[in-house]
């Protein structure tokens, strides 16, 4: 018996970006979108077009570039939002408008301040307006998990009649339990007369650690689209993890009468890219994409795997992209090989000069470490593109000393608005001293919320990748830096965050779009 298609709707670039500090620039979003396209994701929610000019331009760039996936933009149930989304999606090969409205009593009463009849009226009007722009329209019942079943049946029937082609039933606050959530989906499909005219979708949050379990229960009850993110990124505790949904369905074909079109070999490379760009490390014991996901410490397990892999492994590491993305370059690699690998990774440059700058950085890195892997290239490209931007703060010189029994010290020379300034400071360690020296010059008065260090690849010659999260006046920004010297990488990350503050990078959310 043939399997039905489970549509994978990725919202890493929209809901995932709502994680505090996870803001991505247009180039980074485009890189991730291209990776999702290589993975054969069915629908990419590229952003919330009306949220800001930056969001609009990012959605437009992705719609104009990605050809193999449907590109979606979120919009509140307002004509202005829907028009802006349609404008951003104009160049898409396949576009979708995703509009939403709250349906739970608590939201209707306290947030919308509308009666149920008015909510239905607004929802129908929004869907009809969206259908005037394009044929693919998704409607979400925000906070469906706490909505009354009879009202859900009523509003969903009405928006399907109005032209909605996908109906999303989100567990907005992560409140659902699998058995109960699956039952809700089953009841909606059974009770709504025109349910067969739309695809039913689920969007689950992980506040109780049940996002994937709830999503899978919904699939078994008849949902045929799952909204998810790479690495489970997202608001609060995150969303259902794409990699876990895809591999659960694929591994348990005895239980699921569906399968996806995902190219699973792209899962790990994409996971690493998203982690590097957002600065959110993947925990080692994370399913599928964690460093320990296919590691075996127990002697009994090791013996079993050596004799027959399936004794302790239900999936192949190679099937999800482990050890398949290691195109090794070195100091003898030429420009053609470098360019070819960047093309395979979906990385492009605006000019030949930018390409030459990246190649020179690659050669410098290859002189410092024997082998350069894909992960190194991703970090190198990020650093190259940041360096090409207008930066208020630039690192000119860093000297750091640390001796046993003595107080560490750092000397920093920065170019601030083109003028070189110098400061020296001591600290609890060389990184602490470097940050204090930077602050003496920058006087940002920001608060360090996160300092995270990860090795990009294995080995003591690995580049260190540092994420710094700063808060100032309620604004949160992430800074990233990579270098074989961890203190230099740390200084780069701190300065990158300060440059985000200086550039005024922020996103305006007209409404908490946590559907």
From TrEMBL:
Cofactor(s) the protein needs: Mn(2+)
Residue numbers spanned by region Regulatory domain: 394-515
Pfam families documented for this protein: HCS_D2 (PF22617), HMGL-like (PF00682), LeuA_dimer (PF08502)
CDD domains: DRE_TIM_IPMS (cd07940)
Residues that bind Mn(2+): 15, 203, 205, 239
Keyword Transferase tagged: yes
Pyruvate carboxyltransferase domain ranges (all copies): 6-268
NCBIfam families per record: leuA_bact, PRK00915.1-3, PRK00915.1-4
Chain's role: Catalyzes the condensation of the acetyl group of acetyl-CoA with 3-methyl-2-oxobutanoate (2-ketoisovalerate) to form 3-carboxy-3-hydroxy-4-methylpentanoate (2-isopropylmalate).
Protein name as annotated: 2-isopropylmalate synthase
Naturally occurring in which organism (per UniProt): Alcanivorax jadensis T9
Encoding gene, per UniProt annotation: leuA
């Amino acid at each position: 018996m043939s399997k039905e298609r489970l549509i994978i709707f990725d919202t890493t670039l929209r809901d995932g970006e709502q994680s505090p500090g996870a803001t991505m620039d247009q180039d980074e979003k485009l890189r991730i979108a291209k990776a999702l396209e290589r993975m054969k994701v069915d629908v990419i929610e590229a952003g919330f077009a009306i949220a800001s000019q930056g969001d609009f331009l990012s959605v437009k760039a992705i719609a104009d570039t990605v050809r193999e996936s449907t590109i979606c933009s979120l919009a509140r149930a307002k004509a202005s939002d829907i028009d802006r989304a349609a404008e951003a999606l104009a160049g898409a090969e396949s576009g979708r408008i995703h509009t939403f409205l709250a349906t739970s009593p608590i939201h209707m009463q306290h947030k919308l301040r509308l009666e149920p009849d008015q909510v239905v009226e607004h929802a129908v009007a929004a869907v009809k307006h969206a259908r005037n722009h394009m044929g693919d329209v998704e409607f979400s019942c925000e906070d469906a998990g706490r909505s009354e079943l009879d009202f859900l049946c009523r509003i969903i029937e009405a928006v399907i009649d109005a032209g909605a082609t996908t109906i999303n039933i989100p567990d907005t606050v992560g409140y659902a339990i699998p058995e109960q959530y699956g039952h809700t989906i089953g009841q909606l499909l059974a009770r709504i007369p025109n349910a067969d005219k739309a695809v039913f979708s689920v969007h689950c949050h992980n506040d109780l650690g049940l996002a994937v379990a709830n999503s899978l229960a919904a699939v078994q009850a008849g949902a045929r689209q799952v909204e998810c993110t790479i690495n489970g990124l997202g608001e609060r505790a995150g969303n259902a993890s794409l990699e876990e949904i895809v591999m659960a369905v694929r591994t348990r074909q005895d239980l699921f009468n569906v399968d996806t079109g995902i190219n699973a070999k792209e899962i790990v490379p994409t996971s690493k890219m998203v982690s590097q760009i957002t600065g959110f490390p993947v925990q080692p014991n994370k399913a599928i994409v964690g460093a320990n996901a296919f590691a075996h410490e127990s002697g009994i397990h090791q013996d079993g795997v050596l004799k027959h892999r399936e004794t302790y492994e239900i999936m192949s590491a190679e099937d999800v992209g482990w050890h398949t993305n290691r195109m090794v370059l070195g100091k003898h690699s030429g420009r053609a090989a470098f360019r070819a690998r960047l093309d395979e990774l979906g990385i492009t440059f605006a000019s030949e000069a930018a390409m030459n700058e990246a190649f020179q950085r690659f050669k410098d890195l290859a002189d410092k470490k024997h082998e350069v892997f894909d992960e190194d290239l991703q970090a190198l490209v990020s650093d190259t593109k940041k360096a090409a931007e207008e930066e208020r703060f630039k690192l000119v010189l860093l000297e750091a000393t640390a001796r046993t029994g003595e107080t560490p010290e750092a000397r920093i020379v920065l170019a601030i608005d083109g003028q070189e300034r110098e400061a020296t400071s001591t600290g609890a360690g060389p990184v602490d001293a470097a940050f204090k020296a930077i602050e003496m010059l920058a006087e940002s008065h920001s608060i360090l919320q996160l300092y995270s260090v990860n090795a990009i690849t294995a080995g003591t010659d690995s580049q260190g990748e540092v994420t710094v999260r700063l808060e100032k006046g309620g604004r949160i920004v992430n800074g990233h830096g990579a270098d074989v010297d961890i203190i230099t990488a740390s200084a780069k990350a701190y300065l990158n965050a300060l440059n985000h503050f200086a550039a005024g990078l922020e996103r305006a959310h007209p409404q908490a779009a946590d559907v």
